[in-house]
Amino acid sequence: MSQVGLDIVNENKMNWLQSMDLSFIFNLLIFLYMNTKGIIMRALDQFRLKTCMDFKTFPNGQVVSIGQNCYIIAIVEHELLHALGFWHEQSRYDRDEYVTIVYENILEGYQNNFNKYSENDTTTLGTPYDCYSVMHYSKDAFTNGNGSTIITKQPEFQDVFGQWLKISSNDVLKLN
Ligand SMILES: [Zn+2]
């Protein structure tokens, strides 16, 4: 790119920044921070309410009402469960009794996301296979566009799993 071209790019960037009201940017950042915090607090509350675990909150811990945003809460719960040592539900060694993984529909290079873990390395903690788990992928996870990557053996569960509405009762069982 020529020097002239670079100058034009830089000038456009400056004009865009200058056109933004600084207090607007500041308020936007505060808004994003408070909302993110609210979502995490609610995810932790789900754990606190339904399990014997507890999480420390900040001394001035303010919970901000953010309206229903189940999916984002479930993502936080999902990541927290990973942090606590949980694998994905469809990685259970007994998963083939409940779901079929459609490898030809998986995006090239992402097949290993559907690996199974052996009975020696993992435990189901005696819980049944759980289509409602926040740790279960959705039916179209990593699809290459040719169709679903996970199909349940019981058709009535096909549209249930991967909804990630909230932590399921079996997720809670495994925590306790
Ligand atoms: Zn995950």
UniProtKB/TrEMBL annotation:
<dbReference type="InterPro" id="IPR006026">
    <property type="entry name" value="Peptidase_Metallo"/>
</dbReference>
<keyword id="KW-1133">Transmembrane helix</keyword>
<keyword id="KW-0645">Protease</keyword>
<keyword id="KW-0482">Metalloprotease</keyword>
<dbReference type="InterPro" id="IPR024079">
    <property type="entry name" value="MetalloPept_cat_dom_sf"/>
</dbReference>
<keyword id="KW-0812">Transmembrane</keyword>
<feature type="binding site">
    <location>
        <position position="88"/>
    </location>
    <ligand>
        <name>Zn(2+)</name>
    </ligand>
</feature>
<keyword id="KW-0862">Zinc</keyword>
<keyword id="KW-0472">Membrane</keyword>
<dbReference type="GO" id="GO:0008270">
    <property type="term" value="F:zinc ion binding"/>
</dbReference>
<dbReference type="GO" id="GO:0006508">
    <property type="term" value="P:proteolysis"/>
</dbReference>
<feature type="binding site">
    <location>
        <position position="78"/>
    </location>
    <ligand>
        <name>Zn(2+)</name>
    </ligand>
</feature>
<feature type="domain" description="Peptidase M12A">
    <location>
        <begin position="62"/>
        <end position="176"/>
    </location>
</feature>
<dbReference type="Pfam" id="PF01400">
    <property type="entry name" value="Astacin"/>
</dbReference>
<feature type="binding site">
    <location>
        <position position="82"/>
    </location>
    <ligand>
        <name>Zn(2+)</name>
    </ligand>
</feature>
<feature type="transmembrane region" description="Helical">
    <location>
        <begin position="16"/>
        <end position="34"/>
    </location>
</feature>
<keyword id="KW-0479">Metal-binding</keyword>
<feature type="active site">
    <location>
        <position position="79"/>
    </location>
</feature>
<keyword id="KW-0378">Hydrolase</keyword>
<dbReference type="GO" id="GO:0004222">
    <property type="term" value="F:metalloendopeptidase activity"/>
</dbReference>
<protein>
    <recommendedName>
        <fullName>Metalloendopeptidase</fullName>
        <ecNumber>3.4.24.-</ecNumber>
    </recommendedName>
</protein>
<dbReference type="InterPro" id="IPR001506">
    <property type="entry name" value="Peptidase_M12A"/>
</dbReference>
